[in-house]
Each structure stands twice: as C-alpha cells, then as structure tokens.
Amino acid sequence: MTKILVTGGAGYVGSHACKALAAAGYEPVVFDNLCAGHDWAVKWGPLEEGDLLDRDRIAAVIGAHKPAGAIHFASFAYVGESVTDPGKYWRNNVTGAINLCDALVAADTKAIVFSSSCTVYGLTEAAFISEAEPVAPINPYGNTKRAIEIMLADFETATGMRNTVLRYFNAAGCDADGEIGEVHDPETHLMPLAIAAAAGDRDALKIFGTDYPTPDGTCIRDYIHVTDLADAHVRAVQRMLDGGASDVFNLGAGAGYSVCEVIDAVGRIVGNPVQAIEDGRRAGDPARLVADIAHAQQGLGWQPVHSSLDNIVSTAWNWYRAHAAAGQA
Ligand code: UDP
C-alpha cells in the first residue's frame, strides 16, 4: 500500500484526512507530538509519536516508512497566542517545516501537500478571494504560514520537491460516521463554542463585533466541512503522485455566513437558542472572508458536497452530543 506521511494526523483536520486517505487506498503514517492531537483519533495507520523539532526523529520515521508523499498539518494555530508569543510560533511552525523538508529530501520523497490558511490574505476586501489576491498576513501565525509557502518554493528550485499549498477558509463540522471530531483545548472557534452554549454547557457566547459593514453587522466567514477538506487533500496527493506541478488552491465552500446566521442555525438544529452577548471586535478580524473556489474545482476536480451550513452544524452537534460527557468534545 502506498504510504503517505501525515504530520499532525492526530489533530482535527489531519485525522479526517487520514480517514479519507485510507478510504482511497493509501496508508496514512501519522507523525504527531500529541500536544494538540489525540491518540484516539489515529485509526487508519500507525502513529509515530515525535516532534518535528527533533530532526533525527523525523528523519528516522521517514527513512523507515519511505512514504511516497507527505501532508504537513502539524502547526500551532492560535492567532492570539502567536501575537503574544511569536517565537513559539516561528520556532515550531517554521523550524518544524524546515526539518520536515530536509528529511523528505534526504529520503528522496519529492511531493508535499501543505496546510496553509486564508490568513495569508490579511485584510483583503475582495468579495470572493482567489489565489491571485495579494498576500499580506497581519499576524505571526499568518506570517509563519506564508514563510513556509515561500520556503517550499525555494526547496523546489533547489531539489525538485514539488508542493501543493492548500489555503483553508473556516474548517468546521465533523465526520458523519461520528468516528472523529473537533476537540481543541482551549476551544476558540465559533461553531463548537456556539454548540456548547446552545447545549447549556458554557457561558453565553460573545459575538465579536456587531458594527461591521455586513448586512447584520457581524463578520462573514466561509465554513467548509472538514470532510470536504479531507477529500481535497486526497485529490492533491493523487495529483502530486501523478506528477502534477506545484500549485496553490483556496479551499472553502464558496459561500459566506455571518456570525448571527451561524448562531441561528446552531439554535435551530440543537433545539435550544444560543445564549449570546454582543462584545467588541476581535483584533485582526476582517469583515468578510469568502473563497473563490474555481481553481480548486478545476485543478483538483473537487467539489464541496458536505458544506451546507445545516450539514456542518448537524455533524458537529452529533459529535458533541456523543462525546461531551466523555470529555472528547
Ligand atoms: N467569533 C465570535 N465569537 C467567538 C468566536 C468567534 O464572534 O467566541 C467570530 C469571529 O470574530 C469570526 C468568526 O466568529 O468572525 C469565526 O471565528 P473563528 O475563531 O471560528 O475562526 P477564524 O475566522 O478566526 O479563523
């Protein structure tokens, strides 16, 4: 079976990608330090526990498994923390990526898919953001993602290692079979926080800003179901193994929903209104971030099919309901 190294494969998007890889006939080999991921989420291949800052460890794992390609998820991902502790983010995210690339090249594994973020576009005002939009991240987390994108291009020039950069919009929802789901500690994302608030398990949700230039005054985001994201990764891997050239793809649903619209959908599906209070703007939040997904549709032959707002909320709610009591939500 063709092996694919999945760094961060014990995390939220990474574990869903592993399930999709296995369904497509690959063996995902997870490399994860379990600082944010969960060993119970590694179900479709071996777990190699390790830290990307340990050059010898990642080199040994790649040398032992000889993967045909890699998907690189492992990363710190709290924007606020990256502002107060940039060294932590640059050291972990960028040095980790350097060590991974060095080890891949040494083993002659010349294809990598990188999970980047729409954060690299910064405060854009485009209604639908295409890959041609200027890149101008506004926080250290986004800067590290952009730095790695640039580094991957340099590696290709020097070594021929091709890369596919996937810039996610807002990953949300959970595996429809309930095998894996979203578990962050601390949780900062709107969807799981709104669900916990509707379930009565936490204090009122704070709505960060109600004075944005949007129809209801709250921020608009493009929520993409994690299963659709996972499918795009499999297609990106396949395309790389087939010899496809390096490229960048935005991954979203191509539709935007406001914070108030998400809250309404959560209240309706949970059957209990979300207790919410209006709060000030969160620093660095653009009013609207919605993807133009034409390039991903064409270049990856991909279509988001699970990403209706109701399906995202329903699958997230099913996961929460089944796992909150066990501390896994
Ligand atoms: N948001 C909010 N209250 C929260 C968390 C998020 O109003 O407790 C808003 C946030 O300002 C943004 C949207 O919900 O407009 C999505 O935020 P999230 O942190 O989920 O993802 P991001 O867009 O920051 O990647």
Structural notes for this entry:
- The chain has 329 residues and is of the alpha/beta class.
- It has two domains: 2-171 and 224-251, NAD(P)-binding Rossmann-like Domain (Rossmann fold, 3-Layer(aba) Sandwich), CATH 3.40.50; 172-222 and 254-326, UDP-galactose 4-epimerase, domain 1.
- The chain contains ten helices and 14 strands.
- It has helices spanning 12-23, 55-65, 79-84, 86-106, 140-159, 190-198, 226-241, 259-270, 294-300, 309-323, and strands spanning 3-7, 27-32, 47-49, 69-72, 111-117, 162-168, 170-172, 205-208, 220-221, 223-225, 247-251, 257-258, 276-279, 288-289.
- β5 (111-117), α5 and β6 form a beta-alpha-beta unit.
- α2 (55-65) runs parallel beside α4.
- It starts with a strand and ends in a 6-residue tail after the last helix.
- It binds uridine-5'-diphosphate (UDP).
- Uridine-5'-diphosphate binds at residues 170, 188-190, 193, 205-208, 219, 221, 259, 282, 285.
Give me the secondary-structure topology.
Blueprint: E1 3-7, H1 12-23, E2 27-32, E3 47-49, H2 55-65, E4 69-72, H3 79-84, H4 86-106, E5 111-117, H5 140-159, E6 162-168, E7 170-172, H6 190-198, E8 205-208, E9 220-221, E10 223-225, H7 226-241, E11 247-251, E12 257-258, H8 259-270, E13 276-279, E14 288-289, H9 294-300, H10 309-323
Helix pairs in contact: 1-7, 2-4, 4-5, 6-8, 6-10, 8-10
The protein binds uridine-5'-diphosphate.
